[in-house]
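Sharing in case it's useful to others searching the archive later.

Someone asked me privately for the predicted structure of D-alanine--D-alanine ligase, so I'm posting the question and my answer publicly. Question first, with the sequence:
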Amino acid sequence: MGELGHVLVLAGGLSYEREVSLRSGRRVSEVLRAAGIDVETRDTDASLVPAVLADRPDAVFVTLHGGAGEDGAIRSVLELLNIPYVGADPDACRVAFDKPTAKAVVRSVGLSTPESVTLPKETFHDLGAAVVLGRIVERLGLPLFVKPARGGSALGASIVRTAEELPAAMVGCFAYGDTALIERCIEGVEVAVSVVDLGDGPVALPAVEIVPDEGVYDYAARYTAGHTEFFAPARLSEAVAAACAKTAVTAHTALGLRDISRTDLIVDADGTPYFLEVNVAPGMTETSLLPMAVEAAGRDLGALCGRLLEVAATR
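And my answer, the predicted structure tokens:
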């Protein structure tokens, strides 16, 4: 494919999402090999830098989820080594990875996003949990959605339907991060819209609708086959689907992302898409949303990943 020689897929890492990252890396490696590309897969350990300096890849496909894979750290190292890679640069990653910051950016360009409060663990304890949580419920109402301000795969995230459930949700959230994002829970249709830029500008793929069996798209629902029903494309009217696509492309552009991203949305009863968060290293497993969107668009995943690597290599 093109002028690519050998490419490197990074997978694994030390975040809570390591196992998912390994699965994503295996999938990307498989589809690239099927497309005729010479692929090497490596973890992010002490052997990585000497290995890439000894045998420089033409480009790197980052399938690291959470932590260094999405906060810009690994990408900063790749830039220090002058090795091209697929995806957003370190500065854009840092902004997108921090959910409250990303929400502020997209709100500034006119996108809707649920009203929220960001609460570090120290504040939660120092000011008195009962008083602070009581005010949150008064301000945002119920139900609420609590999740770590950084991270993915719904780890530490939960829906709160009564005030009595909020303290436990906060404790569960703080097990995965030091800062909690508490959002007003928008009831509606959950969709994910992937955006790809193959060199001619960002384009949204068909939205994927998510219908978890238990009503919550948690870690098990995301990565266990049969726990969630997906519709690709989503069961949306043409106008609402177009609004979702526009929202995802606008978020991608406003956050300074490139090559590939996935925006998670809730569409309310009026057909308004609400931005929830964006992922700069979307999952690529057999149950992940971006590959479903690629298939719904009539594209080949291996060819698309190969083209993204070509774009990165010539950057």
